[in-house]
Amino acid sequence: MSDASPGGMNRRSFLSAVGLGAAAVGGAPLLSACGGLKGTGASSSDVLKIGYVSPQTGALAGFATADNFVVKQITEALRGGFTAGGKKRTVEIIVKDTQSNPNRATEVTRQLINSDKVDLIVGSSTPDTTNPVADQCEANGIPNVTTIAPWEAWFHGRNGKDGEGFKYTTLFFFGMQEFADCFFPMWQRIGVDNKSVAALWPNDTDANAFRKGLGPMITKAGYELVDGGAYQGGATDFSSQIAKYKSSDAELFTCTPIPPDFQTFWKQARQQGFKPKLATVAKVMLFPSEAEALGPLASNIATDFWWSPAHPYKSVLDGKSAKQLADDFAASSGKQWTQALGSVYSLFEIAVQAFKNAADPKDRDDVADKLRTMKLSCMSGDLDFTAGPQPGIAIQHPVGGQWREGTKFPWDVTIVDNTANKAVPIGGDLLPTSA
After folding, report:
1. Local confidence band at 417 (pLDDT 50, 70, 90 cut-offs)
2. Mean pLDDT, to the nearest integer, of 5-15?
3. DSSP three-state, residue 164
4. For 75-133, what is the HEC assignment?
5. Is the pLDDT confidence value at 306 over 90?
6. Strands 120-124 and 87-97
7. Is 243 helix (H, G, I), strand (E, B) or coil?
8. pLDDT for residue 3 is more than 80
């Protein structure tokens, strides 16, 4: 690409002037954006750098569909700058791609800390990203908030100390109790003769948190857990698990695999005659692209929805509602909203609020303290990082939704159970997955 740009400006100056730049590192997309134009005489201390780490490519890329859109939205919302520490500040956002690889997540986080000299790092999605990012931030004293990872997998997976937590790293999402609060009411309502629950849980940080946490809850609730075994991710043959589920006559199914594995499993299950009455899945079927990949087999698969256009939440930056954000994304991209849209947006809301709350936004200890003690009503609802279950963790309460054929897009979500969050309206009846 030529370095020449309009008005005789070089490419870097031009992109900086319009507040949006793009480059490529190691073949992966890297988008850098400046929120607010730097005025004459502005110094580096006036610019607050936020690093953002996510799986933009690879098996988990569905989580990052809305990333560039969100960065542009945040950039526009902060274009006029804001006051923090008694001075006018602007924000620069530097985005890194993990390529869905935990080792890559560690590497790019180190780049943000050592080369880009960021002031704060945010990250999403799944423990494959959140844990290595948070570990590097904790080790280097960098304020950090991440999302879309069960808190147990994030906290215990990083050897967090009960009642103490971490100094620099925080999380907002939910955990096993909230999954139970979301799934169990649907199990009860659907009505089954056999109370066996087939579980497809691989051998990874995410699934092992479900095995250790949700497994006992399932048994305590009066169900019989049928664990298919801790297989390795990337499996291509699920015949042994399917045979085990069929022999138990399980009518309920739950899982926490990576999306490609679930798609393989679900197709094989149908071919081999395993048709549970209700499937309530985690980590998969969160996004429209996954429903499209399964086609008709996606019908009435249920999952947890922590954010949707139906949620009554709004931005703390500009007052935009969840529905407006979803509509803007569709108008801009031609694509359907995804849950990660609201979560990623809130990462930046929280980061900016921490800067504003700190006496000195360049003081990492001060900013980290403001993250750990934050209470904020934002695009992801009411978040309280002081409430626990551990210090520095804010809990969301997901509702149950099912995938059904859409009108504007091939598949859409119908909220069918709001037991865990009555603020979210019901959109339709709970239906059997096997219907």
Report:
1. very high
2. 33
3. coil
4. HHHCCCCEEECCEEEEEEEEEEECCCCHHHHHHHHHHHHHCCCCCEEEEECCHHHHHHH
5. yes
6. unpaired
7. helix
8. no
Examine the pLDDT at 2 and tell me if it is beyond 60.
no
At position 17, the amino acid (one-letter code) is: A
99-118: buried (b, 16+ CB within 10 Å) or exposed (e) per residue?
A: bbbbebbbbbbebbbeebeb
Say if residues 51 and 3 touch (Cβ distance below 8 Å): no
Decide whether 6-174+309-395 matches 177-305+398-417 in CATH topology: yes
- pLDDT value of position 5: 33
Retrieve residue 165's tokens: 């937590």
| Domain coordinates in residue numbering, the chain | 6-174+309-395, 177-305+398-417
| Record: fold of 177-305+398-417 | Rossmann fold (3.40.50)
Please state the pTM of the whole predicted model.
0.86
Range in 15-19, 32-36, 107-111 with the lowest mean pLDDT: 15-19
**Structure-derived torsion over alpha carbons of residues 157, 133, 120, 71, reported in degrees to the nearest 10:** -120
Q: How many helices (H) and strands (E) would you count in the chain?
A: 13, 18
Cβ(30)–Cβ(67) below 8 Å: no
Helix (H, G, I), strand (E, B) or coil at 311: coil
Neighbouring C-alpha atoms within 13 Å toward the C-beta of 364: 19
β-strand partners of 281:
303
Q: What is the DSSP letter of 302?
A: E
Residue 39 has pLDDT above 60, yes or no: no
Q: Is 181 helix (H, G, I), strand (E, B) or coil?
A: helix
Q: List the Cα angle 303/309/313 in 5-degree steps.
A: 105
Tell me which amino acid residue 259 is: P
Banded pLDDT at 10 (limits 50, 70, 90): very low
Q: Domain 6-174+309-395: give its CATH superfamily.
A: Response regulator (3.40.50.2300)
Q: Are 64 and 125 in contact (CB under 8 A)?
A: yes
DSSP 386-424: TSSSSTTEEE---EEEEEEE-SSSSEEEEEEE-TT-TTS
Distance CA 110, CA 384 (A): 29
